[in-house]
């Protein structure tokens, strides 16, 4: 019974988070975007590693995410991330660095749904 309640609470929380995230997205213009745009995000990334064996250690780092949209929802996205620790657990004291780079095309589909129209209909 407890597990069933936990699953329901977790599912409800996930639905709320996804709904709020979707609500915060800007609605695309009906004509389509003719000029390009560039979005840049700089993010701090803490990471705990080697948790299963009990000799865990923290890695600190960050990432830069860039998305350029250049024509009718077509764009390019890139994410470069780096993590570092001066010493892993144990007596070895060996440092560790982790660097990842991902990139590729992105297509953003325009939708006919507008949140403003939905709210206006609900309140009217």
Any overview of this molecule?
There is one protein chain. It contains two helices and four strands; from the N terminus they run αββββα. With 124 residues, the chain is of the alpha+beta class. The chain has a domain at 36-109. Strands 1-2-3-4 form a four-stranded antiparallel sheet, with no helix packed on it. β2 (57-71) and β3 (74-85) form a beta hairpin.
Key attributes of the depicted protein:
single chain; 124 residues; alpha+beta; four-stranded antiparallel beta sheet; 2 helices; flat
N-to-C order of helices and strands: HEEEEH
* Biggest β-sheet strands, sense, barrel: 4 strands, antiparallel
Question: How far apart, in Å, are the first and last alpha carbons?
Answer: 42 Å
Morphology call: flat
| Averaged pLDDT | 76
In the sheet with the most strands, the strands line up as 1-2-3-4
Rounded radius of gyration (Å): 21 Å
Number of strands: 4
Offer a concise description of the structure.
With about 120 residues, this protein is an alpha+beta fold. The protein is about 25% helix and about 40% strand.
């Amino acid at each position: 019974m407890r597990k069933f309640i936990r699953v329901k609470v977790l599912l409800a929380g996930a639905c709320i988070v996804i709904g709020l995230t979707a609500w915060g997205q800007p609605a695309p213009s009906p004509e389509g975007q003719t000029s390009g745009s560039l979005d840049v995000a700089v993010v701090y990334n803490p990471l705990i590693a080697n948790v299963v064996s009990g000799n865990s250690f923290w890695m600190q780092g960050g990432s830069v995410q860039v998305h350029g949209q250049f024509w009718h929802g077509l764009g390019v996205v890139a994410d470069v991330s780096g993590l570092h620790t001066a010493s892993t657990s144990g007596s070895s004291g060996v440092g560790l660095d982790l660097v990842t780079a991902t990139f590729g095309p992105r297509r953003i589909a325009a939708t006919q749904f507008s949140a403003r129209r939905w709210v206006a209909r609900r309140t009217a």
